[in-house]
Design goal:
Shape: elongated
CATH superfamily of the largest domain: Periplasmic binding protein-like II
Number of domains: 3
Helix content: 40-55%
Largest sheet: 8 strands, mixed
CATH class of the largest domain: Alpha Beta
Order of helices and strands: HHHEEHEHHEHEEHEHEHEHEH
Number of strands: 10
CATH architecture of the largest domain: 3-Layer(aba) Sandwich
Structural class: alpha/beta
Strand content: 15-25%
Distance between the termini: 63 Å
CATH topology of the largest domain: D-Maltodextrin-Binding Protein, domain 2
Low-confidence stretches: none
Radius of gyration: 25 Å
Length: about 300
């Protein structure tokens, strides 16, 4: 045997799934086997290694540090096997792609454009999932994700830049005239989002504008970013919003941007585990997203 220390290969899949889920029951469901079968394979692996891999409590199953170390290696090996198998396979990948996207961008930019994807690439079916922050592709069953680069991307993730973030105050057109000279902000409700609380500070820093301490504006904070945009549409106040999520409202005349938009130095990227060339569906979706994203760059029209 070339690998004398290699544990029994049939124990590795149940072990990795158990560590990932912290549950033998969930691992058994994923692998379509019984709980007892998973338990026996874990015991076989522990006997082969001579160390316990889990701390078994009354209600919790906690992997040991050694188990987490081994599971990470097993997961990397499985990813490499999967990628190579896909590369050499003659069968074209089929089925829907799961695309995760930050909620506000998903609702206000991506979903309204999906009919264009259906018309241009009828063979590509997309399941949408709202989410933000770090992406756990394997754990959550995600194929691709759109994320803003306000956190570090892992080195092993494939990324395609889509567009740069541009932000600016938006409000109903009837408020825009008195805001155009900058004086109206002192007596207008400023809308904040709990998920991006520094939006107004960032805009002021980027444009060199300062708040008037003698006449501070009223403030209102809403839980989600997309709620501030909806509140601006309703005429409640003024929100700092990215161009991407208000572009359609601007074109319909529901919102106005009296100060325009300024780049904030961040950008949105399409993240994935494999190169688009390995999967025709991913290639088509990536090309479509890049084309739609190009419309968001300065000077481009719909």
């Amino acid at each position: 045997m070339r690998w004398p220390a290699l544990p029994p290969p049939n124990t590795l899949l149940p072990f990795e799934a158990t560590v990932r889920h912290a549950s033998m029951t969930a691992a058994a469901q994923e692998l379509h086997v019984t709980h007892g079968a998973v338990s026996r394979q874990i015991q076989n692996l522990e006997r082969a290694l001579g160390v316990p891999l889990f701390e078994r409590g009354t209600r919790a199953l906690r992997p040991t540090p050694q188990a987490r170390q081994l599971a990470a290696v097993v997961r990397d090996a499985l990813d490499q096997i999967d990628a190579t198998a896909r590369q050499i396979s003659r069968r074209a990948p089929a089925g829907p792609l799961t695309l995760s996207c930050e909620p506000t961008l998903l609702m206000r930019w991506l979903i309204p454009r999906l009919p264009d994807l259906t018309a241009g690439a009828p063979d590509v079916t997309v399941h949408l999932s709202a989410g933000g922050g770090p992406v756990f592709f394997e754990r959550d069953g995600i194929d691709l994700a759109i994320r803003r680069d306000d956190f570090p991307f892992p080195d092993d993730v494939r990324r395609t830049r889509l567009f740069g973030e541009r932000i600016g105050p938006v409000c109903r057109p009837d408020l825009a005239a008195r805001l155009a000279d900058g004086t109206g902000l002192t007596d207008t409700v400023l809308l904040h989002a709990a998920t991006r609380p520094r939006a107004w500070d960032d805009w002021r820093r980027l444009t060199g504008r300062t708040a008037d301490p003698a006449a501070p504006a009223a403030q209102q904070t809403l839980e989600h970013f997309y709620l501030t945009v909806q509140a601006a549409v309703a005429g409640i106040g003024v929100a700092v919003a990215p161009y991407a999520v208000v572009r359609d409202d601007l074109e319909r005349g529901q919102l106005a941007a009296p100060f325009g938009f300024v780049a904030d130095g961040t950008g949105y990227h399409l993240l994935g585990r494999r190169p688009p060339e390995q999967d025709r569906r991913v290639h088509l979706l990536t090309s479509w997203l890049r084309a739609r994203a190009a419309e968001l760059e300065p000077g481009q029209s719909r």
